[in-house]
Design goal:
- It is a single chain.
- The protein contains 4 helices and 17 strands.
- A hairpin with a 2-residue loop joins strand 14 and strand 15.
- The protein has a single domain, classed as Immunoglobulin-like (Sandwich).
- The chain has 260 residues and is mainly β.
- It is globular, with a radius of gyration of 27 Å.
Length: 260
Amino acid sequence: MQSFPVSFPRVRPVPLFRLFRHKRAMALAGLVGLLAQTLPTTSVSAARLRGRVVGFKLLRNPVWTEAADPNRHLFSFREAVPTVPADARQLYPNIPKELCIAALSTVAQKAPPPVLIRVGGGRTTPVTIVVPPMTRLSFQNTDPFSHLLYGPKIPTFKPSETMRGGSREWTVSEPGVFEIRDEAAPSLRMWVVAEPRVAAIAYPSLDGDFALNIAEPGEYEIQAYFSGKKVGEAAKFTVGQNDIDASKAPLVVAKPEKKG
């Protein structure tokens, strides 16, 4: 019986690091695909409106105004240093969390996803927020102690203890201005403005610059809110698909008081 030589093709071994690299690339591609499905998408027609606010150093937080009342006996023993300029000694708000810039549409808007409110350091972040009705707010306690948040005129937001690292939710049910306080820290005050027409909000930088992302074209009013109230006059814009730079005509949120 005749035998024939049998030859097998030579298989070149694949280094282990190439296998690991291939698996890592596949895992990374799967993670990117998952993030693309879970992260919110931005409308292609969204336009960015850039602007600037001035005069914010003249705004006064109501907490400061009440503390200056001599009948409350909240005295300070600090003495003014003559070498420090007067404007540097003057208190002014932290506008990245206290001054809310809102874009108001001509029609009512839908409620956005739940909004996170951080409670810590004796304040909330943000301090003033403008949202459409039926927006759910989630208050997260970042302090190492408990908070007793409540709404003085909100029947659905009674004082309740929020432990360290805990959270508490509340839904804005109707239009209006709602104040949030804390029994554990009386100086903590927050304002929620429920405005049906608000389409986008932004908070300016310490220099006063802000940017609003507006998804739908149309007519809008840009209004600033401070301590739950409108400050300054609204500016009207026609928003299309192109970005708008309105920084050359800043929003004046406060003016010096006239003497006499």
